[in-house]
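User: I'm writing a tutorial on reading structure tokens. Could you give me a worked example: one chain, its sequence, then its tokens, then a sentence or two explaining what the tokens reveal?
Assistant: Sure. Here is the example chain.
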Amino acid sequence: MDGERGLTLLEVVIALLLFAMMAMFLLSGQARAADAILRARIEREMAELLRLRLDLAALEYEEYREGTTEGEFPSDVSSRIVDEAEALGDRFEGYRWEVTITETIGAGAASTVEIEGGESHELLFTEEGSAAEDDEDATSVQAEEVDRMIYILVTVYPPRYDELTEEERADAGMQARSAWTAVHLPPDESEGP
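And here are its predicted structure tokens:
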């Protein structure tokens, strides 16, 4: 074994350090990928739940009291359309919702409503019953064109939302999501034709 040289302790230590650094780099990349997948799943589920609750609130607004109603998924609010316990099971456990219903005016009339975060917005309800941000044309609306409308704001909260601080929510990508719609009410029978 003359002239053969083995690895020195320094070479072994450097090789181990390089291996450890590469392993740490690869594992942190996998952790970021897993975190991104979790965030994407939560966002997709929140979008599904937001659409479900908004559709149910718009179709069955009489099941919700005027003001704010809260609940969790699956909901205990009765529905003629879907049995949430059967359809959702416990897949969405931890998600919760809030529905705010306000009676307002519509069909070409301007109305002030609060939208997410307490901001007041002037909305212009057109003949079709949809709402748009108010513009100068809203002032020319005739009073006799006013119909009753229900303004519905739905907010969905992700699991553990209340347990986290605002900074932790932002870091984890766990923000509440909101959507709103307006529903044209049938004429009040007491008003006559």
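What the tokens reveal: The chain has one domain: 9-191. Confidence is low (pLDDT under 50) at residues 127-145.
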